[in-house]
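Changelog entry: the Methenyltetrahydrofolate synthase domain-containing protein record was regenerated in this release. Current contents:
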Amino acid sequence: SLPQLHPPPGASKWDVREKVWDYLEASGLADFPRPVHRRIPNFKGSRQACCSIQELDVFSRACEIKVDPDKPLEGVRLAALQARKTLLVPTPRLRTGLFNKIVPPSGATKEILRICATSQGVKEYSVPVGLDGKARVDLVVVGSVAVSEKGWRIGKGEGYADMEYAMMVSMGAVREDTPVITIVHDCQVVDIAEELLDDHDLTVDYILTPTRTIKTNCKRPKPQGIIWHKVTYEMLRKIPILESLRYREKQIGKDVTLQDEHSDLANANAPAALNEKAMAESTRPQAAMGSAQKRQHYVESDSLNPRLEGSGMITAVYVGNIPPGVRVSELKCALREFHATPLRLNWQGAQRRAFLDYKDKATAESAVSSLKGLSLGGNTLRVELAKNQRNKGQVEINSQK
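Regenerated structure tokens:
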């Protein structure tokens, strides 16, 4: 049997995640896409674990099932489609709404249903479900990085599953007794200290692994809806549907004051002030480090016209607070996902920052607003127009911290 992973006393959520990710990779249990770090990890045996959902009454009775888009849940999406249930999949990062409903073509073969269950199928065979789509979800299936037999769950740290659930409560799409299932490898079932749980954390009722089905009998209440005082303006910008839900809840008299609403006026000029401070603090030359970093240029696109370089049009965006361990490929992936791919990316990982070149100021500003609040590796990145634009010289721009 597998060694039980025991997070040490006092371990943070992030410690638990790292322990699970490292173990899955080191033991050869990790499956595509790899490495599993910073994802809901796919694992060998995920299909087997997914198949056992068909034996649960809560699955047989459900008509409408919400399943996250993660790779290890593909087998559940397929089982739902084969059982002719309505399948809802959250839109990636909730950028265009809350759900997509997967609609296979009529008379779809098993092969087509298989495609419908993949991330490709979610793109090709789905229709968006708006807030007025009157979704009535009978069963919720989420991915996890770690989960305890008591039903306490740790996700990958971006909070989307918790937020999706809270939004479904606000929409009236789930009730207090709507069951929540997670699918994990046996080694992801670990002890989780109760003090790690927040009131917005989603708990689970069933855990399916390749070898067993665990009914958690979890008594801890699930989130009762969106906890507005924990929501920031950045989250509202990133998740447009939150804005609509907030408006609705305001109409019915709920307190929808945001976390940063009170300090809003005080912070109106903060970015400029922060920039000045950053410049003042970091005028030390970077010497050898600087030259090594400058060679590390990642060019995203060859469409850059060299003649534009000095014309004052190219505008650089500064990305800071990148956690150690995040790779350039992860940033590139996020940039593509948020439709903010730059002409050129200058990665300076050792200084935990990067500079993105856009063709003009408007494009750069639009990228900044798309990327506001972007979180990688557990850190919210700092994204703003670079203080000194590239056309004023590489040296100055490299001196920004």
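The chain is about 30% helix and 15% strand.
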